[in-house]
Amino acid sequence: MYTYKMPTELFCGRGAATKVGEKVLELGGKKAFITTDKGVLGAGLLKGIEESLKDANVPYVVFDEVESDPSIETVEKGTELLKESGCDIVIGIGGGSAMDTAKAVATMGTNPGKIFDYIGIDKVKNKALPVIELPTTAGTGSEATYWAVLTDKKTKFKTGVGGWLMMPTLAIVDPLLTKTLPPKVTAFTGMDALTHAMESYVCKATQPISEGLAIHSMKLIARSLRKAVANGDDINAREDMIMGSLIAAMAFNVTRLGLAHALVSPLGANFGVPHGAGNAILLPHVMEFNIMAVPEKFIEIAKIFGENVDNMSEMEAAYKAVEAVKKLMKDIGITQGLEEYGVTEESLRPIAEEAYKSGNVAVNPRKSTVEDLMDITRKAMKGIK
Ligand SMILES: [Fe+2]
């Protein structure tokens, strides 16, 4: 038995972001609280949103202090400002950090106490304020998930608050918002989206609906990630990537992920490994580890990436998927290993032990131990040639 649930309304297409003012009114919003970061401001992406809100006569407040890997303190600061300002709808514009902060702040707008009280899944009691999410990167898929990933800066612990009551009300998915993303960020975030699709596709909790979504997401990413990195103005590629990211999130929000995502959180919190880069670096090694659990799935992945798997044994054909991902990483310039971020042999056990607490371990297709996680991380220390 399984359930597929996707309560977020999706409004997609080139220029969709210019309709945000109308959408606020449709949702009954009177005053909007915008969570964003300085990068979005610097890229001039807020301008169109502000114009749209002004045209619709919607007053708004901008909270632009979201940092990458947002902290619990930032959510508390945002919540205070939200309450002072009397806003009744939250708009998140940016990457995963700004969108996750929007969800967290909207949740604290209707729930007592501190965000820290709700760590985990389904701890939140009251439905969050309405949230509109506008992704400006094609990777996290936060616009279609119920998670807010937060970092406790003091303990360097990365954790999540999640549940259906935190699901965004509306996602406005406009590829034009991703046009100015530099190639490196396009590559990192694109690999995050690919890891979402792949981990969801092969995981134990996979089901026919999420599988269909994951396969389509991988097809879009396979045909367009190189193009989006090579030429950011290629709007067709940008559209494929932002839809690939959204659709992957629609898959993994009901299945969870796998070992790459389990490991990337402590690596990010302790060594500052960027989420997308970390997933990319880990992905081929996690794939190798998982292949023998579900070789038929990896053969499908190899085919999606255009590999010829004719006249091969099952395992040989499945390994073609790993080769395909390595080729992609090389082409888009992700050749570094974890040691370039300062990860050391001594840190492998604490990282693996922390990762092992993640809910993503239980759904990984192959059962694993802390030692397996150490082994995967050790292999990812060196980059790909
Ligand atoms: Fe991710």
Number of domains as seen in the coordinates: 2
Report the helical percentage.
Answer: 40-55%
Order of helices and strands: EHEHHEHEHEEEEEHHHHHHHHHH
CATH superfamily of the largest domain: Dehydroquinate synthase-like - alpha domain
Uncertain segments are none
Query: What is the CATH level 1 assignment of the largest domain?
Result: Mainly Alpha
Oligomer: single chain
Largest sheet, spatial ordering of strands: 1-9-6-4-2-3
Hetero groups in this structure are: fe (ii) ion
Strand content: 5-15%
Structural class: alpha/beta
CATH-derived architecture of the largest domain = Up-down Bundle
Number of helices: 15
| End-to-end separation | 44 Å
Instruction: Outline the biggest β-sheet.
Output: 6 strands, parallel
How would you describe this protein?
The protein has helices at 20-26, 38-42, 46-55, 72-85, 96-108, 183-202, 208-230, 235-255, 259-271, 275-290, 295-304, 314-331, 348-355, 359-363, 370-379, and strands at 9-12, 32-35, 60-63, 89-94, 120-121, 131-135, 147-152, 157-162, 170-173. The longest helix has 23 residues, at 208-230. A hairpin with a 4-residue loop joins strand 7 and strand 8. With 385 residues, it is α/β, with parallel strands linked by helices. The mean pLDDT is 96. The strands form two sheets. A six-stranded parallel beta sheet has the order 1-9-6-4-2-3, with helices on both faces. Strands 5-8-7 form a three-stranded mixed beta sheet. The chain has two domains: 9-178, Rossmann fold, CATH 3.40.50.1970; 183-379, Dehydroquinate synthase-like - alpha domain (Dehydroquinate synthase-like, alpha domain, Up-down Bundle), CATH 1.20.1090.10. The chain is built from 15 helices and nine strands. Helices cover 50% and strands 11% of the residues. The structure holds fe (ii) ion (FE2). Fe (ii) ion binds next to helix 6 and helix 10.
